[in-house]
């Protein structure tokens, strides 16, 4: 699971754990309890109570391996480390990541890459043109603007850079399965757009990068609301008899099943 801080990786994992271990509601089910069950139960309990799940601490990797049964592809082991998003923020800002992370990225069979639906969007040409029409001359007060701060770079630029780093470590692999998970999908789904439409409109650089590298990444786009709504709506969400019924997963060709993105990666590897 890859992604910048606060993109919903741990919340996704909590809901995924409920689906495979608790409710058995998806395409994948658990065959035996893993050593990390205590951690998974902890984050699931917070998810069930509609509480904010504590972020994976900076510099921390929660290594999780699940033995799963697929309805179509038999049994397999899923290593799904819960990585701190700070790793990827620091990789962008400092141009380095630790050996432990490099080994995980280099050895992975596929990736779930998380983008939050409420990212700080880049300024579009349509917004700039009325302010500075073509051919206009603009004087910039460099003293006021200050020194460039990499932390303030737009999310899609950071995401593209991280994916380029991933590709640089996968030169020997022709095509790697990649699921782009747009988290907190409930905040944007009212417009009726599918994830691919949202990505092309809101994050065009990232969309173009994925299209241009379709020979390196085999990509699926999914919108996921692992909690089912904003935590301010907790009272209403908790009225559902089964917490798993809060989960919403949207894609062009997949079911409303939080295990489906992982199942899709597995099916690509068995081709």
Write the layout of secondary structure elements.
Blueprint: E1 2-3, H1 9-22, E2 28-32, H2 37-48, E3 61-62, E4 65-70, E5 74-79, E6 82-83, H3 86-94, H4 99-107, E7 111-116, H5 125-128, H6 142-145, H7 155-168, E8 176-183, H8 195-202, H9 204-212, E9 217-225, H10 234-237, E10 248-250, H11 260-269
Parallel strand pairs: 1-7, 7-8, 8-9
Antiparallel strand pairs: 2-4, 3-6, 4-5, 9-10
What would you note in describing this structure?
The protein contains eleven helices and ten strands. The chain is an alpha/beta fold. Helix 7 (155-168) packs parallel to helix 9 (204-212). It is 36% helix and 18% strand. The radius of gyration is 20 Å and the shape is globular. The strands form three sheets. The protein has a five-stranded mixed β-sheet, covered by helices on one side. It has a three-stranded antiparallel β-sheet with strand order 2-4-5, with helices on one face. It has one domain (2-120, 148-269): 3-Layer(aba) Sandwich (Rossmann fold).
Largest sheet: 5 strands, mixed
The strand order across the widest sheet is: 1-7-8-9-10
Q: Count of helical segments?
A: 11
* Fraction in beta strands: 15-25%
The CATH class is identified as: Alpha Beta
Number of strands: 10
> Structural class of the helix and strand makeup?
alpha/beta
CATH architecture type = 3-Layer(aba) Sandwich
Describe the global form.
Answer: globular
CATH 4th-level superfamily? P-loop containing nucleotide triphosphate hydrolases
- Look up the CATH topology: Rossmann fold
What does the radius of gyration come to?
Answer: 20 Å
Helix content: 25-40%
What's the overall average pLDDT, rounded? 82
Terminal CA distance: 22 Å
Uncertain regions: pLDDT < 50 for 5+ in a row?
A: none
**What's the number of structural domains?**
1
Please write the string of helix (H) and strand (E) elements. Answer: EHEHEEEEHHEHHHEHHEHEH
